[in-house]
Amino acid sequence: QGYFRALYSGANGFCGGDILADIGEISSPGYPFGYPLNRECVWTITGSEGSNIKLNKVAFDMELHLESMCAYDHLEIREGGFSGKDIQRYCGTNMPEYLTISTNKVWMRFRSDSNGSAPGFLLKFELTYGGVLTGESGLIASPRYPQEYKDEETAIWQIFVNDDQRIKISFQDIELEPNDYSSRENCYDSVKLLESVDSENALKMFCGYKIPEPYTTRGSSIVVKFKSDISRRMKGFLLKWEAVRVVPDPSATPNTLNATDCDTEWFSSMEVERNFTSPQYPYAYPPRSDCKYT
User: Fold this and answer.
1) What are the DSSP E strand ranges found in the chain?
2) Is 243 exposed, middle or buried (0-12, 13-18, 19+ CB in 10 A)?
3) Strand 74-79 relative to strand 85-90, pairing
4) According to the model, what pLDDT value does residue 116 have?
5) What are phi and psi of 172, to 5 degrees?
6) Sheet architecture: strand order including 98-101
7) Alpha carbon distance 29, 63 (integer Å)
8) Mean pLDDT, the chain, as a whole number?
9) Is residue 83 within 8 Å of 134, Cβ to Cβ?
10) Fewer CB atoms near the end CB (10 Å): N or C, the chain?
11) Which of 79, 226, 223 is nearest to 159 (CA)?
């Protein structure tokens, strides 16, 4: 089965479309014999959550008018969709050879005006899975989720948050081939949580069909590794990661959390009994208090 190669062009008057392929080509209408006047084409390429998109310029030759910021004939590229980050407009021959889109979706619009034409462009695209993730939250999915992943496929994501934060992993969906359907200890296909890329022992390993309980890291980074074997493909997984604030281990007052802490997650390496107090205890707590302690 595998992936397929797709060519999206406008040779017969149609151009643009929503693309879900792993790899393919996009060309301006009429390429390489010249694009028509007064034409607009819009393409979107979408991969699974946590993937990136690479664009490779094979050929690019459009009417040049840099002094007008490519306002006439041009190719416009945005990350994430029409309302996403505007990478740039390209005209003439000034498009770079390679572009990496750091999100799982890219929006591209070709426009020509009523004067002048040129051969146009031919771009190759390829989805890549894995990479480095930062920020406050995000989603990660197995390649092509919710479509089936391929045999012998591996993808690795590294997540980094601020030093005073931890990472909470919450699975939204999971369908990975287990070895023993009564246990997650043996997995043919799996997603693992590791301390580092070089770690041999997993902190957690998941497969099967049952959504696991959320997992919160002890440090400010985590590695998510997906791997499949040579048989039986399934839908895969979708997980959400988010940075959570951590309350430092209160060594100066070992049996009580700071009285001002409210609505936090607290981590301690000492296996001793702890006491939680309402805000400002033993003094009156503030009005309209609503605190959660984990």
Assistant:
1) 5-8, 17-19, 23-27, 40-46, 51-61, 74-79, 85-90, 98-101, 105-111, 120-129, 131-134, 137-141, 154-160, 165-175, 190-194, 204-206, 215-216, 221-227, 236-247, 265-266
2) buried
3) antiparallel
4) 87
5) -95, -30
6) 5-8, 23-27, 120-129, 51-61, 98-101
7) 15
8) 83
9) no
10) N
11) 223
Pairing between strand 23-27 and 5-8?
Answer: parallel
291 confidence band (pLDDT: 50, 70, 90): confident
Residue 269's pLDDT is: 45
Give first-to-last CA distance, the chain, whole Å.
46
Amino acid present at 55: L
Residue with tokens 């426009």: 111
Q: How far is CA 132 from CA 51, 156, 181, in A?
A: 10, 9, 32
Please give the biggest Cα pair distance in the chain: 81
Q: Are 192 and 205 in contact (CB under 8 A)?
A: yes
User: How big is the chain, counted in residues?
Assistant: 294
CA distance 9 to 28: 6
Radius of gyration of the CA atoms of the chain, in A: 25
At 68, list the tokens: 């007008």
- Mean pLDDT for 258-274 is 49
pLDDT digits (tens, 9 = 90+) for 170-209: 999 999 998 865 555 578 999 999 999 998 889 999 999 9
Confidence at residue 248, expressed as pLDDT on a 0 to 100 scale? 59
Three-class secondary structure of residue 66 per DSSP = helix
Cβ-count burial 26-45 (b if 16+ within 10 Å, e if not): bbbbbbeebbeeebebebbb
pLDDT of residue 196: 92
- Spatial strand order of the sheet with 17-19 comes to 17-19, 40-46, 105-111, 74-79, 85-90
